Amino acid sequence: MSDAIDHDLFKRIQDKVAIVGIGHLPFAKDIGRPIADTAVEAIQLALADAGLQNEDVDGMCMLEMEATHEVSIARRLGVDGLKWWSKISYGGGASSATVMHAAAAVASGLATTVVCHRARNRGARTSRPWSQERELVKDDKALHVPWGLIRPVDVIGMWAHRHMYEFGTKREHFGNVAIAARKHAHNNPYAMMKGRPLDMETYLNARVIGYPLHLYDCCLETDGALACIVTSIDRARGLAEIT
Fold first, then answer.
1. Which residues contact 172 (CB under 8 A, 6 or more apart)?
2. Is residue 243 part of a domain?
3. How far apart are CA 203 and CA 218, in angstroms?
4. 212 cis-preceded (ω within 30 degrees of 0)
5. How many Å apart are CA 218 and CA 216, to the nearest integer?
6. Do 194 and 186 form a contact (C-beta atoms < 8 A)?
7. Res 52 pLDDT > 80
């Protein structure tokens, strides 16, 4: 399967694009605003960080699982006619794919300045998609939802259990990942757990969420919005540094 990987892909993009602006709202359990509002604010913060204007945007990339749409966001921003847009499936680490899609679009000339963004209100339990699952499901979730594997942690827990069986993985190994993630998150001034480091004892004593995964194996369900601006390296060099 590795033979199908295009190992030259990154070389074709390397040194052709740059992230020139970032916009980030503080994470919260209840941000108290619609996601369309927070998405636009994060985008405008990112544009200001880059020294660009709304009308400079000609591309947009986001996740398809969110309730915002590129047309409505573009209208709110006053962007007249997007040249390119894309939506990425799933969630979690898929956010990084929005940047990759944007970079490919800029490098290939399909767009000049692309906004990548995500806004979500997931602090409340009722806002999470698995809280509204029904017995009748029509996609591949029919293989596991009726049997109680509703949340991502339920399914991933089975993968983790298999990994433990095949490779002798211990909970301490999972703990190293969680502790490192918390440590690096402390570099973000908006982090929900800023100033609350995680140690192995606390990790191991946490309650089970979806065996063998425990509380600190799971992400924090919060409200928030983020955006970044991807543009060509030539345009990036021409932007004034914002301090």
1. 200, 204
2. no
3. 11
4. yes
5. 5
6. yes
7. yes
Exposed, middle or buried: residue 30 (CB in 10 Å: 0-12, 13-18, 19+)? exposed
Q: Are residues 46 and 94 in the same domain?
A: yes
- Adjacent-strand bridge partners of 146: none
List the CATH number of the domain containing 32.
3.40.47.10
> What range defines the domain where residue 232 resides?
2-125+223-237
The reply to whether 111 and 151 lie within a common domain is: no
32 and 90 assigned to the same domain? yes
Determine which helix (DSSP H) or strand (DSSP E) holds 202, and give its type and residue range: helix 200-204
pLDDT, one tens digit per residue, over 192-233 is 888 899 999 999 999 999 999 999 999 888 888 999 999 999
> What does the block give as tokens for 28?
């919260």
- Number of folded domains in the chain? 2
